[in-house]
Design brief:
The protein is of the alpha/beta class. It has nine helices and eight strands. The strands form two sheets. A five-stranded parallel sheet has the order 2-6-1-7-8, sandwiched between helices. A three-stranded antiparallel sheet has the order 3-4-5, with helices on one face. The two termini are 13 Å apart.
């Protein structure tokens, strides 16, 4: 068994950026499972298929030729050989990824892929169901959260810094919709694992959160190495 870190939480909680930074600090690989679902969502949109339709989702799985590679420690998501990392961070693709993730065929396919990737290599994995479903025996589990209002403000700031015009009310409504969708799906819904450490970042800065998460992981890693 290798040391794995499972970081779960709702949309906009900062899981991906914090996990990436933690992986750099701790010399671990970071697997962004949300990017995997976003990639399939992008393929559904490209094919003109409905990501909320199970039959359409099955077609996406069959035709997407989706792969995850690592260059150094950087995750590269590929559709039919094309790297799509720069194309999957829009709100439209995010919603499509959330919709396609509801289907049993998609969850099972991604579950097996994620477990294979994490089987022999210590890594930080973030998503919605890592500690509860993908890696229920992970040595370190963290549930990262923030209020919907704070998550919406952070998302708005991120978009504006990237030169995108955006409306707070629209972003806030989208976050609430994503929360409902992720927490109500029948298969592996978003929820906190019973043994996950809860971290609310609403009043914390990015660096404060990063330092707190690093301390939690190092403490759990020491317990893991002692066999506790």
């Amino acid at each position: 068994m290798v040391f794995s870190v499972a970081i779960d939480g709702p949309s906009g909680a900062g899981k991906s950026s914090l996990s990436e930074a933690l992986a750099d600090r701790l010399a671990l690989i970071h697997l962004d499972t949300g990017a995997m679902y976003r990639s399939l969502g992008l393929q559904a949109l490209r094919m003109g298929l409905d990501p909320s339709s199970e039959s359409d989702a099955a077609q996406v799985l069959e035709l997407a030729d989706f792969q995850v590679d690592f260059e150094g420690k950087k995750q590269i998501n590929r559709l039919r050989g094309e790297a799509v990392n720069s194309l999957i961070r829009t709100d439209e693709v995010g919603m499509a990824g959330s919709q396609i993730a509801r289907h049993a065929c998609v969850r099972e396919s991604m579950l097996q892929a994620q477990r294979r990737l994490a089987e022999n290599v210590p890594m930080i994995i973030d998503g919605r169901d890592i500690g509860t479903y993908v890696l229920p025996n992970a040595a370190c589990k963290i549930y990262l959260d923030a209020s919907p209002e704070i998550r919406a403000k952070r998302r708005q700031k991120q978009l504006e810094e990237n030169g995108n015009r955006c409306d707070y009310d629209t972003i806030y409504a989208d976050i609430l919709r994503r929360d409902r969708q992720d927490s109500s799906r029948a298969i592996a819904p978003l929820k906190r694992a019973e043994d996950a450490i809860y971290v609310d970042t609403s009043t914390l800065s990015y660096l404060e959160t990063l330092d707190q998460l690093e301390a939690i992981i190092l403490d759990k890693k020491a317990e893991f190495e002692r066999g506790e």
